[in-house]
Automatic annotation (TrEMBL):
Signal peptide: none annotated. Residues 23-171 form the Isochorismatase-like domain. InterPro entries: Hydrolase_YcaC-like (IPR053152), Isochorismatase-like_dom (IPR000868), Isochorismatase-like_sf (IPR036380). This is Amidase. It holds the Pfam family Isochorismatase.
Amino acid sequence: MTSYAPRDPKTDRLLTPENSVFAIIDYQSTQINSIESMNRYQLVNNIVATAKLLQAFHVPVILSTVNVASGRNQDTIAPLKDVLGDTPSYDRTAINAWEDREFNEAITATNRRNIIMAALWTEACLTFPALDAMAEGYEVYPVVDAVGGTSLAAHEAALRRIEQAGAHPTSFSQLACELQRDWNRTETVPAFLENMIAAGKFLKL
């Protein structure tokens, strides 16, 4: 039972806390309430668990909202905001977050080429920045069970479109296992288990 030494976390072909950034886009009440591709309670549960997980692994988080400053929309939902604490939030008017200068510069400043991405809706606020980021050489990993669309058909079509363009769909549990990688890395095991239970992947016995 001898594990190899950890690979270089910055050049590893798999996702690591050191080679990734997490983009969270538009988890606001208007968007949540319009989701029809999955149960909304589970959607909120999954994005909160994903945010907690990535914070535990010290993955930088870039948070964005749309139309809060204009008064047309409310801020990030409270359960997610509570987890993210003082994480800066980049408000914008563009549907495509990649076309917002502050958001774009925040991603660029991390100097990480793997973007773990979650956004509402799948067919717009996930698809458009994913396509643009990949066109600029980034690898994009949409968390499929933490995103949603206005219909199941719209959600699935959007995921197919970005996958055909080169995106790498992942799930909460796959992401958790990819970041943990080895049970000998005991520092993050408690957070791994806590968030797997929170997302309903494990039963708390």
